[in-house]
Amino acid sequence: RFGPLMHIFVSPLNLLLRSSVTRPKGALRPILDMDNIEVFGARDITDLTSKQLLDFDSCTNCGRCQDQCPAWLSGKPLSPRQLIQDAKSYMMERAPILIRDGKNASPPDTNLVGQVITPEVLWSCTSCRACMEACPVSIEHIDTIIDMRRYLTMEEASIPQTAMDALNSIEQRGHPWRGTQATRTDWMEGTGSLTMADDPEHEILLWIGCTSALDGRGQQVARAMASVLKLAGINYRVLGAEENCTGDPARRLGNEYLYQIMAEQNIEILNNYGVRKVLTLCPHCFNTIKNEYPQFGGNFEVVHYTEYVAELLRENKIKPRKAIPMSIAYHDSCYLGRHNEIYDPPREIVEAIPGLQLIEMGKDRCRERGFCCGAGGGRMWMDEEGTKVNHIRTDHFIETSADAVGV
Prior knowledge:
With 407 residues, the protein is an alpha/beta fold. It has helices at residues 6-16, 50-58, 64-68, 70-73, 80-101, 119-122, 130-134, 141-155, 161-173, 210-214, 216-231, 248-252, 256-272, 283-292, 305-314, 344-352, 389-400, and strands at residues 204-207, 236-237, 277-280, 301-304, 326-330, 356-359, 404-406.
């Protein structure tokens, strides 16, 4: 009715109905009735929420989302602007038929997912939230992309092979890595760390995460965190062999069913031990346990280690004394920064270390405008053709001439 001026009328409503009013920024919308749902994910516009359809009408086609998208900037087929515009055109074509015929409407000649919006477009997304941060009318691209991924993964079984391998590994081994010979307790050697099974009396549970437990370099991070907690006199425990993947990769790759299995399993373990406070290393584990586990009854106080260590410094429970005469460029993780608005604690830690100089990567490459590392949204377990997102980010580090990178 309003033609090209539609967005002027609906954008204020879209701002008012943005999901961050009712759920945390980092939380995806769950599928709450898995047993009685007709279609997993979004196959047609009838499978999308009214807010998602309102997103399409609200788009001003300004391109700010596209300008910030790491997939687009690295030559991938995903343009957040074009995705919304293509979905809008499809909606405008399909809506009159649905309004006229209702449930008796004939199937569309062209599918929304697979033809109008191709799998290559959907699998390019890193879920970094840069598009949503830039959008002036609160369009929520990630919800729509993940819903379409859910359809591809759970209905069509159409998913890149390497991503499917990660999902199979989560299901069979409890972690997304393949070929690792390490166990979840290897990192504990020499740290004096106790598991909840050994002694459940604790002040805080240290959630290690798959990478810090199973990757050689990641294990150094876990040991370092254990040493900081020991130095500060914190009575912490770990789950050890009982810890499993939080399910974050499964959820963002579209396998909501597997995610919910992992989440409910972990929540049951934490509740059985009476865990109240969880300390995480990985920003993705942090986001999932803090923002998404409450959707399934997992209500815990969750802090990221940068928040916790910064607090220990402020309370003088630890005090760095050895000077480290070097410069460091700090990378704002998308899931710590844009998804959870944690920017200052990591910088407080850097500033507390004698001799360590923080070099920011320019106003367009840090904090809210930080550039993605390329691994989010399950992209960690997918092949990437052409220019790699992480190579672009590496160039940003190199341009600072800093001695090291902090993450």
